[in-house]
Amino acid sequence: MLPKHKTSEHYMKDIFKITRLLGRKHHKSRRMKVLSAVLFVVNGLTGTIVGFRCDENAVHCFTSLDIQSAFTMIGEKDIGQVYAKDRKLYSINPERNGPVPIDDIITADGWNQTRHLITANGSMPGPSIIIYENQKITILVKNHMINEAVTIHWHGIDQLGLPAMDGVAFVSQCPILPGQTFNYTFQPRYGGSYWYHSHVGNQRDMGMYGAFIVLRKRDPVPFELQHIVQIQEWNHLYNAMDLLYANVKNEVKSPNSILINGRGELKDNLAPLEIFHVTKGDRCLFRLIGVGSMHVLLFSIPGLKLNVTETDGFEVVPTVVDNIIIYPAERYDFELDLDYAEERIYNITVSILSSKKLTIKPFIGLGFLNVSNSNNLPAKVYEQNIKSRVLNCPFKTYPHEEDIVCVPVNDLKDRGHVNDDKFILQKIPKLNETALHFLNFGFPKHNSSINGRIFRWPTVSALTQPSEVDTDCSRCTDEETCHCSHSLNLKTGSTIIMVLLNLGTGATISHPIHMHGHTYEVLKMEFPEVTIDGNFTFSEHIECSHTLPNIKSSCNNARWRNSSWNDYNKIPGINTVDPVRKDTIVVPYGGYVIIRIEARNPGVWFMHCHIDKHMVDGMALMLNESFEQIKVPNGLPTCHSYLTKMSGELSASSSPQTSSITGKIINLSADKLNRFQLARTNQWFSI
Ligand SMILES: [Cu+2]
């Protein structure tokens, strides 16, 4: 047992270690503030996310999400407007003495000016939804807003055979209008940490997100010892009008703060923070979810190592690191080995990294880990390591940081728990055919795009009204960009190799690329060479143009420089044995990622950068997969632009406001596939 007096001594060491590792430019007042912050937390602040948990023995569970406006820093009834002080909240109502309960108040960073949010069930994060593998779940999403349409996407769930449940407005469904309710019913097949969020505009940046956890009955850590950690940067401008105004004035500002489970602090305001409780002798699992809008975050618990066991719902060989770099939409599950923990409160820190070279800024995100030790267990001491291991760097070596060892995400290896057949649709036979696609994510000619195609959103649901979508991108050339509803046809049963690249004139920062409807195997990641001074040398494995050097080309039509690599098995460094699977991967600035899927999940699947602004501006496309085999629920509502003719294709009845997937399933014919591809003949779509 450690003598009690060591606790505070070690705590001070911890404070200074954080300062050394993450905040070299930190000044003394910040250190003192962190110390006082912890003292307030000892008084018993806590934070919980109330959610829905499906009974372990249930076959089909039901819950609902009420999408509604909400406001920060306002309590119910006589509480009214509140302000933060000493990690507590107080009402400005003079008749309310003393602190008010914090659980029902959305504090965000405790900024005294109320912000308008869009939430599920009035909380931020929204309620966590927790079910077991292969349980069916029905979630009624009711839109209670008066001004805005909404949809909910279940991020990371592949929606096998149920593409209409994917929740992308104008891709997999018509948006849910004010007053309407949509019935999402689906059956997640494999366990892991997922999340849900709005897929309309930038609503998720306004609070419309929550955790979606799929438990495995064989999971080694009991549910009661699992914790959800949702981290994000917070910007007081993150609503559509403020962002637009800031763009017009060309003054988009850096984030104001960082939130952990919806709680953070603005400068020195001592707003309530999140605290997690663990006990020595227990196993404990943390499900880290990047719910941010655009910034790259560095997560750590200084003094404790993170044993990463999963990413994006995929189990990996446990890998010990000190810090995790997390981009928007990624998930990393880790365990803490509490044998090494002392009985005390540890800081949980989150820093913002600059967008290109990931320069580490002083941490502004703070939460707490309270370790108790009721059985007086001793604490082991880690072997002394001078260098800090950082998971998920988008380069081989960290610029300007000699003490950091980069652990690329493809160093994570398949743990072998998952039978590959779980990931594919058994009903569709596998063909002995492979297609190769190069997709360049960037800003050629300053346009957010994929292969120079700036995504134009359909004005109907592409899944149900394919003939009304113009997918013609022929005005794009090898060097010129264009606007179009970019889609990529994937042949049923074929193997798809995608080279996701970030090269050419539009390569400026790394992008987290998310694919709906699949998780993909990460067969290879190629990073730029970086000198300690921060000079990048881009990969030359890819040829952007026959006539221009890569740095002068838009790189809209890339190919391997060595054509023998068209057979992906011949690419040096390819891993087809134990690759990690992801649904969101960082495509490194100056490099590329090779991924593989099998086209055996028919649907129209969105693929896009998960930096919201990049997606909204056009870095997105639709995967038009096995279209002739797509099944959609009978009676799924359709919608039309006012400029189009009625399609009438699926409208057997007048549009119901509630979809039902209990109706008979109908097949879209091959004829409609052709119309999807040939819809450009419709004059209304010519611009
Ligand atoms: Cu991006």
Provide a compact summary of the structure.
It contains five helices and 44 strands. The protein has 687 residues and is mainly beta. The protein starts with a helix and ends in a 9-residue tail after the last helix.
Describe it.
This protein has 687 residues and is mostly beta strands. Among the domains are: 5-24 and 223-411, Sandwich (Immunoglobulin-like); 420-685, Cupredoxins -  blue copper proteins (Immunoglobulin-like, Sandwich), CATH 2.60.40.420. Helix content is 8%, strand content 33%. The protein is built from 5 helices and 44 strands. The strands form 11 sheets. The protein has a 7-stranded mixed beta sheet. A 6-stranded mixed beta sheet has the order 14-13-16-21-18-19, with no helix packed on it. It has a 6-stranded mixed beta sheet with strand order 27-26-31-40-33-38, with no helix packed on it. The relative contact order is 0.12. Mean pLDDT is 85; it is low at 1-48 and 647-687.
Helix percent reads: under 10%
- What integer is the average pLDDT? 85
CATH first level of the domain at 420-685 = Mainly Beta
Measured by DSSP, the beta-strand proportion falls in: 25-35%
Termini separation comes to: 74 Å
CATH topology of the domain at 420-685: Immunoglobulin-like
CATH level-4 homologous superfamily of the domain at 420-685: Cupredoxins -  blue copper proteins
Ligand set: copper (II) ion
Q: What is the radius of gyration?
A: 25 Å
Structural category? mainly beta
Q: Quick one: how many beta strands? A: 44
Low-confidence stretches: 1-48, 647-687
**What kind of sheet is the major sheet?**
7 strands, mixed
Q: In oligomeric terms, what are we looking at? A: single chain
